[in-house]
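Fold this complex.
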Amino acid sequence: MTQLNDTTQPAVTDGWKVNSSLAMRRRLMDRLATVLSLCATAVALIALGSILFTLIIRGAGGLSLITFTHSTASPGLNGGLANAIVGSLIQTAASILIGAPIGMMCGIYLADYGRGWMASTTRFVSDMLLSAPSILIGLFIYELVVVPTGHFSGFAGSLALAILALPIVVRTTEDMLRLVPVSLREAGIGLGASKWRVILFICLRAARTGVLTGVLLAIARVAGETAPLLFTSLGNLDWSVSLARPMASLPVTIYQYAGSAFDDWVQLAWTGALLVTVGVLLINILVRVGFGRKGA
Amino acid sequence: MLEAGSRLNGDSFFRWLVTAAGVGVLLLLGGIILVMIGGGMKAFETFGPSFFTTSVWNPVTQHFGALAPVFGTIVTSLIGLVVAVPLAFGASFWLTQMAPARISFAVGMAVQLLAAVPSIIFGMWGFFVIVPLIARYVQPTLHHWFGHVPVIEALVAGAPFGTGLMTGGLILAVMIMPFVTAVMCDVFTSIPAVLKESGFGLGATRWEVMRNVILPWSRSAVVGSVVLGMGRAMGETMAVTFVIGNANKIGWSLFAPGNTIASLIALEFPESPAGSVKLSALMALGAILMGLSFIALAISRVLLGVSGKKEGR
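Structure:
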C-alpha cells in the first residue's frame, strides 16, 4: 500500500482537485479490471459451451441400443462401442485399484511421517509425476511391460493409467490430512490409540470426503486418457475382456475413428466422445455438488 | 484391540509401509527417467550432439534431429501460456472477488468442468471447429491486415491450412486456462479475510486489494499454478496431435504446420519397430520432454522458495 500513500502526497498541497482525479482514476481502473475479468470468465464459458454443443449435435445421433450392445466392426457393418466401453471400464477400475491405495499410503507418508529432504524430494517427484506428460508414461510402460512380454495388453494399459492416477491421490490425501486439526490427533493419542490407528481411523476418516474426491478426480482423469494407451493396451477391434491381451478403450477408439474416412466410424467417434465426456463430467459434478466446494 | 507390545509393531509396520510407498514413487520417476534415457541412448550415440541441433526427420535416410519438435513444443506452450494466464487470472479474480456467491459457484463449476474435459475431446473439437475458423477467417484476416508489415508479415505467412502452431497453442490455452483458473481460485479464496478487509478498510478498490494485498500474499502459489499449466501444455498430446499439422519444420510463421515432441511420438510410434533408430530417437525426445518438464518444475520450486511454506504449516 506504500504506492498508494506516495501518490496521495500531493493532495495535501493541491487540495480536493488532485484527490478527486486520483479517485476517478482508481475507480476507472477498478471498472476496467471488472470488465476484463468478466470477459475472461466468458471466454471459458463459451469454450465449454461450444465443446458441449458440438458433442451433442454430432454425437447424440449415434446413440442407439446397437452402440451399447455391439462391438466395433468394419465400416458399413453397423458396429457399436460395447467392447470399447467395457474395456475403458475395466482398465479404469484396475488402474484405480492399483494406484489409489499406493497413492493414499504415499500421501499419509508425506503428511505424517515425511521429514527433511526425503519428504520434500518425494513431494517434488509426486508433483513431477502429476505434470509428467502422459504419453511418456505410456512409453515407459511400453519398455517396461510390453517389450519384455512381447505383446500389448490391457494390464499394461491399466498400469500406465495407475501411474497417472497415483499423484492425484497422493496430493489430495496429503492436503486433506494436513487440514485435519491437530487437536483431533491429540484427542486420539490422548485416548491411548496408536499412531497408525489415529491416522487411519481418525485423520483419514475426518478427511475421507477430500480423499474420495481425489480418487474420483483420478478416475475422471484416467477415464479420458488416450496417449498412454496407444502404446500399452493398443486397442482391440474385437470383444476383449482379458487383461492379458490388447484391450479396446473408448479414447483410443475415438482417436482411431475420428480421423477415418468412413462416415459411420466418424459418427461412432463423436458418440464415443459424447459418452466419455458425459461420464467424466458427471463424476466431476458429483464431486463438486455432492461434496460441496470444500472437497476439491 | 491390540496389546501394548504389538502396538509398537503395528506402528513401525505402518510407518514402514507408507515410507515404502513414498520410496516407490521416487523409484517410479527414477525408472521413467532411466527408461527414457536408456531407450534414447542409441539415438544419442548415433547422432551425437547434432541430435539437438538438426531439424531433419527423415525415416528413409534414418536421420533424426530433435530441433523441430522441441521448437514446436516451446512455441505452442508459450502461445498457450500467453493467452491462458491473463484469462485465468481475470476469471479467478471475477469468480473469487466479484461474483455473487451463487453465480460464482455455478460458473466456477462450469470452469472446473472445462478443466475436466479429456484432452482428446479438445483435439476433436479443435480439429472440427477451431481449424476451419482459423483457416477461413483468422489467418486470412490477419494476413490481410499485417501481410505488409515487416516482422509480423513473417508470422502470419503461409497457406491457410488451419492446422499449425497457432491453432495448437490456442487449443492448449483453452485446455490449461480452466486448470490454472481452478488453482488460482483456490489460492485467492484461501487468503485470510482479515487481510482483504483491512485493505477495503483503508478505502482500496477491489482491484487495488487484488493488486496490492491478494497478489503479493499469494504470489508463489500463483506462479506455481502457471508453471503447472505450462508443464501440462508442454506434455499435452492428443489435443495438439489433431491440430498441429505434423510437419517437422522450423519457420517464422505461426500458422504453418509444425510438430511437438508429444504429438510426434504419438504419430510416429506406430511406424517405429522395436529396436529401431527411429524408436530410439522418439525415446530420446521423450527424455528431452521429461527434462523440459523437470526444468519447469524446478524453476517453479526456486520461485516458491523451496516449499518452505508448506513445511512450516
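Residues 306-313 of chain B have pLDDT under 50 and may be disordered.
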